[in-house]
Amino acid sequence: MKLLIFLGLVGYAIGVWKFWKGYSRTNFTPGLMNKVFLSLGWPVLVFNGSYRRNFRKALK
Prior knowledge:
Layout: H1 2-22, H2 32-40, H3 42-45, H4 49-59
């Protein structure tokens, strides 16, 4: 069980890091608070089609 939690946290952190680094490739408005909110909220926001497209752009 602890291993699954650890792997989930690692996956979350990787998603945050990759989105943060690729944020400039998205269509989102520049700004630190936008970047923080959209980076940390990716697991929930990824269900939105527009966000999902931008998330893929950021990961490339």
